[in-house]
Specification:
754 residues; six-stranded mixed β-sheet; 12% strand
């Protein structure tokens, strides 16, 4: 055994100290080890030599990469992997607790409440994994860990490769999984495996927790498997009279022989097993919030019923204008545009929308535009019972569009018994009365919301055309400022150029209408990230929030300024307020995680970023946040896997490559990091690569002087992320360097000599 432990030690990176054997299963041995760098206990899972030989190195690494992509509060993460002398192993956190298998050996059966708690945790993990395109394929009691009152799913991507017994059942397929819980399609190997296979396996497991025995038993693997394929679905209530009918029905549906007859998502299965009468509507979990006020509304995107799909901009614009009008009502809580538009094109139940956005009513409608004629329908629905509080249809000329918007806003205010602070036609005079300019503005905002460089440039063109028709159109100037802010943030423009453009457009908007919160917010953001004018940025953020205290973007961007200044508690308050107002905003949800990251709570940051991924697994800016949190938390394998996955779709983005190189270097994968550095140095001869990207790579490689050289160049380039130099934990090791201290002083942070 001592020789085997020595072999394990040789397979693992030097920073891990293997201590002793902790446990063993059919296909693997688990050792307790110490992560010396991070001062924490870890578990090293070692595949038995015969399995390592059968699997092969390439397949093992593929499975490790799969497992490393999954970071969720109810999934046991994979930290790292190693291989030596044919021995394959990977590391996980050391978790105090027991497996569900061990608990079953003690209790035999569990209460319905206990089973429901486990179901919620496991289905949350499964839904997340399935959204990443990953199926577990070996859900069983031994792969569910119970710790700290939570159920955690282990061995994603690893279980079936390392431990599953394979038995040929047909001429062309193999069974992968554990016989008591294997789905029919796994057993035959004749069909592709999808998330419904995991749902089947988990339903068998839940049946066993309630009944005290698996749904199918027998004297051999083959006899058990044949029952999965052909036997009648058992009714758990025959063994326990206290099981409600809806639980029995949910289990039976989940154990359907044909995958098409099962629940389509794990969360739908969980809802069906926890409450009677629920349908399989997919919902998105949000932070805990107080009950919705009676005077609250979400305006869903109006459906475009026009023959021309290009009129989508008009129906979206109509929706935004009504949201903006209702947002002027002080006694009315209005869901933010981002959150409302998250449900565009979905068939989500009104009750689920109300619960997610924490509103009591929902306004939905449609727009049909034909030539100069409009037909607009709208109805206000009470979330609690689906009752229509108000509805109307408007058949008007296009020139009446402003009046229609105002009529709808007035009708909602009257229905919900709230008062407008001023007539809406007075609000309109501060916008535009030019119908063509208004149409161009809507097109501009539609493009701006797409966020790509090409669409942002198109947005600027539309806003400029609107201004050519009405040079007093303050909102169009604010739109130009917003577009240039994003072009600078995404580095399609240099910081000095973006600053000049934003200040010019926002300044004109404020000159026309000093009460326009959007313009003050745009100007504040440019003063913050491009000009490093901390006092002016804070002044304009405060003005924007005085004009509109319920402006989520202003709360978000002001919170980022507060983070840069080290005022973490204030930042958390503002970010949290913005998130409560706009719970479906991907960027604000990411900002909530950023607060935790800067405060040093990397795991909380990671958990929050993963919540954002549940909403949109492809959110393009998340690598800039989740990756660094992984690295700071010592989770190098997930960081590297995540960067590599996103680089497949980024056309070799220099920033992502620099972050990947940093993660590789910190993880002691020095040569791959140097390869990326050389690659970007070559590219720099023909394209501009921001200096801070090189600074980061040299920092990871330990080239402190070279890193400082590039940080000084980044200062000259006004690279915007230098605003976080004073607080980002990535730069902590430089803060004792005199050159770095002088750079901080030159940034002119409040309280510094510069």
């Amino acid at each position: 055994m001592s020789e085997f432990i020595e072999q394990v030690r040789r397979a693992m990176p030097e920073r891990y100290t293997v201590e002793r054997e902790w446990g063993a299963g059919g296909g693997a041995i688990v050792y307790l080890a110490e992560d010396v760098k991070h001062g924490r206990k870890i578990a090293v899972k070692v595949l038995r030599p015969e399995l390592s030989a059968a699997i092969g190195s390439e397949r093992f690494q593929r499975e490790i990469e799969v497992a490393a992509r999954l970071q969720h509060p109810n999934i046991v993460p994979v930290y790292d992997s190693g291989e030596a002398e044919g021995l394959m192993c990977f590391t996980m956190p050391f978790i105090e607790g027991q497996t569900l298998l061990e608990l079953l050996e003690e209790k035999k059966r569990m209460s319905l409440d206990e089973v429901v708690d486990i179901a919620r945790d496991v289905t949350s993990a499964l839904d997340y994994a399935h959204a990443q395109g990953i199926v577990h394929r070996d859900i069983k009691p031994g792969n569910i860990l119970l710790s700290g009152g939570r159920a955690l799913v282990a061995d994603f991507g690893i279980a079936w490769a390392g431990e599953a017994k394979s038995a040929r059942l047909t001429g062309s397929g193999r069974m992968v999984g554990t016989p008591f819980y294997v789905s029919p399609e796994q057993a035959t190997g004749d069909e592709p495996i999808d998330p419904r296979s995991d749902i089947y396996s988990f339903s068998c497991l839940l049946y066993e927790l309630l009944a005290g025995e698996p749904p199918y038993t027998g004297p051999s693997v083959r006899s058990i498997v044949m029952q999965h394929l052909t036997a009648e679905i058992p009714d758990v209530s025959r063994l326990r009279s206290d099981i409600p009918p809806y639980v029995s029905a949910a289990l039976a549906k989940a154990m359907a022989k044909d995958a098409a007859d099962r629940f389509t998502t794990a969360s739908a299965f969980a809802r069906a097993i926890t409450s009677p009468g629920l349908t399989s509507v997919v919902t998105i979990e949000t932070v805990s919030v107080p009950p919705a006020a009676d005077r609250s509304v979400a305006v869903l995107p109006f459906a475009n019923m026009s023959a021309d799909p290009e009129n989508e901009y008009f129906s979206d614009g109509m929706t935004e204008e009504i949201i903006n009008a209702l947002a002027q009502v002080p006694d009315l809580q209005v869901a933010a545009r981002t959150s409302s538009f998250a449900f565009k094109g979905t068939n989500t139940d009104i009750k689920d929308i109300g619960r997610t956005l924490n509103v009591a009513t929902v306004l939905e409608g449609s727009v049909r535009r034909a030539g100069t004629m409009l037909r607009i329908t709208a109805q206000l629905v009470k979330v609690a019972d689906g009752y229509h509080l108000w509805s109307d249809r408007f058949d008007r000329e296009m020139g009446d569009v402003f009046a229609i918007q105002d009529e709808i806003a007035h009708a909602i205010a009257d229905t919900l018994k709230v008062k407008l602070v001023e007539p809406l036609d007075e609000r309109r005079t501060r916008s535009t009365t030019n119908l063509e300019a208004y149409t161009l503005y809507l097109k501009g905002r539609y493009c701006w919301n797409q966020r790509t460089a090409r669409q942002l440039e198109a947005a600027i063109s539309y806003f400029e055309q609107a201004i050519a028709l009405d040079d007093s159109y303050a909102l169009a100037y604010a739109g130009i400022a917003d577009a240039y802010n994003l072009l600078g943030f995404y580095r399609h423009l240099s910081s000095p150029e973006a600053l000049k453009k934003v200040c010019g457009a926002a300044g004109k908007a404020i000159a026309i209408d000093p009460s326009l919160a959007e313009a003050h917010n745009s100007l504040a953001y440019a003063k913050f990230i491009f000009a490093w004018d901390w006092a002016a940025a804070e002044r304009h953020f405060k003005t924007a929030l005085e004009l509109n205290p319920y402006y989520p973007t202003a709360l978000h961007w002001y919170a980022e300024l507060l983070l840069a200044l080290g005022r973490f508690d204030e930042a958390g308050d503002h970010m949290g307020h913005g998130h409560a107002l706009d719970p479906m905003s991907l960027s604000i949800g990411t900002g909530v995680g950023w607060v935790s990251y800067f405060k040093g709570d990397n795991q909380a940051a990671i958990d929050q970023y993963l919540e954002v991924l549940k909403i949109d697994p492809g959110f393009v800016i998340l690598p800039w946040f989740l990756g660094p949190a992984y690295v700071e938390n010592g989770m190098f394998t997930p960081a590297i896997a995540f960067y590599n996955e996103r680089l497949k779709h980024s056309h070799g983005h220099a920033g992502l490559l620099s972050h990947l190189a940093y993660a590789q270097a910190v993880a002691t994968h020095v040569e791959p990091a140097r390869d990326i550095l050389r690659q970007l140095e070559t590219r720099a001869a023909t394209e501009h690569i921001p200096a801070d990207y090189f600074a980061l790579m040299h920092l990871g490689l330990g080239n402190v002087d070279r890193a400082l050289d590039y940080f000084e160049r980044a200062f000259d380039e006004r690279c915007w992320n230098l605003v976080f130099l004073n607080v980002d934990p990535v730069y902590a090791r430089l803060r004792t360097e005199p050159r770095f201290s002088r750079l901080i002083d030159r940034m002119g942070f409040p309280g510094s000599p510069g």
